[in-house]
Structures are given as structure tokens and as C-alpha cells.
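Memo to structure team: turn this sequence into C-alpha cells by end of day. - J.P.
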Amino acid sequence: MKVVLLQNVAGLGEAGEVKEVADGYGRNFLLPKGLAEFASPSLLKRAEEQRHAEERRQLTANAGMTDIAQTLEGLAVTIRAKIGAQDRLYGAITSGDIAEEVQRLTGQDIDKRKIELDEPIHQLGEYEVTVRLTKELVPKLKVIVAEEPAKSRAKAKAKPKKEEKAEEVAGAVAQAMTEATAEATAEEKSEEKD
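Reply from structure team:
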């Protein structure tokens, strides 16, 4: 059965494409769900027009993204993160983190959904990440996940001022109580002698 796809169908094709599918698949799945229609001559003509319009749109998008793709190709992005045991990160590096760093380095605002990351990064190291700007423009970035400098970690470990003051007050109170107890014991001993 020949059908024209009305929407993108995973594993089959994109909207506007003409596909030959099994009769059962077409009648029982694609047609009832509104994903495709029978390939009539008028529908085939409309699909061809849509395909040409899509090609023109792709050419325009490619022309606009070429400079960005050249900027991103081979770009090395270093992201610093806190680490724990066995060089595992506290948290993870996501496509959002990468997009933010690319924007900081290049000034190019990249949508995090265009950064293809199979899963968040949890280890130190170098990773090759692709950015799908358009179908044809897919530059590759080098993402380097490095340990956060020790100075930054020391600041992070520093206690907030309120906690420091609370500990100072608690220490002063404990010392005062110890001194008062010692004085009371000394007075009792001196009274016993008299």
C-alpha cells in the first residue's frame, strides 16, 4: 500500500514523504491515527510541493547556520565541576551546561535540545559531542570535564558566618561553664580547709 505521511513517523519517515507500507500497518495503524493517507494523485502532488518547500527551507537554514557551524566545529569547551571518589562528579554535566558554556565562549545562543548527548556526563575526561544545527550541519565539539580548582572548593567548604558565630558562642559558653565549675570547686576546697 502506498501512503503519504502527514506527520513524522519514527522508523518510517518524515511528513510529506511517500512510502510503501504493509497493508495491515497502513490500515490498522497509520490511517486511523491520522499519520498518513492513501497516496492519491492530488495528495502526491501536494506532497511533492511540500517536499520542495522543505528543501528550500533547509537551504535557507543551512545558509544561516554555516558560520555558526564553522565556529563550533572543533571548539574545545572546558567545564569545571566538583568531584568525589573515583573522579565521579557531584551531579552531572548536561546539554544545558554545555549550551551555557558555548554561549559564554562564542556569544552564539545554541538551543540545548540541539546538543546530542546520549546521557549526562558523570566522569572527568574528554568527550566528543555533536550539535545538530540542521539535517546537514552537524558540527562536533570537544567537551573537557575538569576538576574544579582547589581554591574554589575551599571556599565552598568554608562554613557560613552564622554557623561560625554559633560555634564561637557555644565554645565561649562551654569555656565559661568550665571556669565557673573550676572556681566553685576551688571555693569548696578552700571552705573545707577553714
